[in-house]
């Protein structure tokens, strides 16, 4: 019964991943052909924090049951909701280029929140403190990949995955000022720690909601 439930959950997430991938292909083609005249702009390379749910939703069905798969579910719940809410609160990054890309941004980030809520109520995530701790290796591994892209991608300093470029201050509100005051590297570290803290608060909120539901039952 549990395996059947997980199969249904994975199938829903996989179709969400396919939808996100289709949206991303449209965005990349539109930017490449209509906006940049056949030149690729590495600023829009799809490896931001909000891009990760697309990849995770596509690979979760092939992961075996165990701690890694549970960590992936938990990551989608915590960081997906965080990324969705943060982007909707400050939508500057996807507004102003073209109305279809603005629509893409809103649909994308609303879906991230819905995916996170779906996982929370599916019971697939680990809502304990240890469960969150198990997402940290994933998060910092993704950070390492993002940093490598920022350093190695063409156009020195052009790319800014996770907004932790070592070449210029992060454009993120508040943290941009911190970078100007204390330096790029310390500001980037503070930013990443704040991302972890935000995800942890969402994680604890999901756990408290569960506790209240059980008490009421």
Strand percentage, roughly? under 5%
Strand tally is 0
User: Which sheet architecture does the biggest sheet show?
Assistant: none
- Please tell me what the overall shape is: globular
By oligomeric state, this entry counts as single chain
The averaged pLDDT comes out at 92
Question: How widely separated are the two ends?
Answer: 23 Å
Rg, Cα atoms, Å: 18 Å
What's the total helix number? 8
Instruction: Find the structural class using helix and strand composition.
Output: mainly alpha
Q: SSE string, helix = H, strand = E?
A: HHHHHHHH
Instruction: Give the proportion of residues in helices.
Output: over 70%
**Low-confidence segments:** 210-217
Core attributes:
single chain; 217 residues; 8 helices; 0% strand; disordered C terminus
Fold and architecture overview:
It is built from 8 helices and no strands. The two termini are 23 Å apart. Helices cover 70% and strands 0% of the residues. It has 217 residues and is an all-alpha fold. Mean pLDDT is 92; it is low at 210-217.
């Amino acid at each position: 019964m549990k395996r059947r439930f997980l199969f249904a959950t994975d199938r829903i997430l996989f179709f969400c991943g396919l939808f996100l991938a289709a949206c991303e292909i449209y965005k990349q083609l539109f930017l490449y052909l209509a906006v940049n005249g056949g030149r690729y702009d590495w600023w829009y390379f799809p490896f931001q924090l909000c891009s990760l749910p697309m990849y995770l939703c596509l690979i979760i069905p092939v992961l075996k049951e165990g701690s890694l798969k549970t960590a992936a579910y938990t990551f989608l719940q915590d960081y997906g909701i965080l990324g969705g809410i943060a982007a909707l609160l400050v939508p500057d990054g996807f507004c102003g280029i073209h109305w279809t890309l603005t629509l893409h941004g809103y649909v994308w980030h609303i879906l991230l929140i819905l995916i996170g809520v779906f996982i929370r109520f599916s019971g697939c995530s680990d809502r304990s403190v240890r469960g969150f701790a198990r997402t940290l290796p994933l998060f910092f591994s993704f950070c390492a990949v993002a940093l490598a892209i920022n350093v190695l991608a063409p156009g020195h300093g052009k790319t800014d995955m996770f907004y932790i470029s070592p070449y210029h201050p992060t454009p993120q509100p508040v943290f941009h000022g911190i970078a100007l005051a204390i330096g790029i590297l310390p500001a980037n570290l503070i930013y990443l720690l704040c991302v972890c803290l935000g995800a942890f608060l969402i994680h604890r909120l999901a756990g408290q909601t569960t506790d209240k539901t059980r008490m009421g039952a």
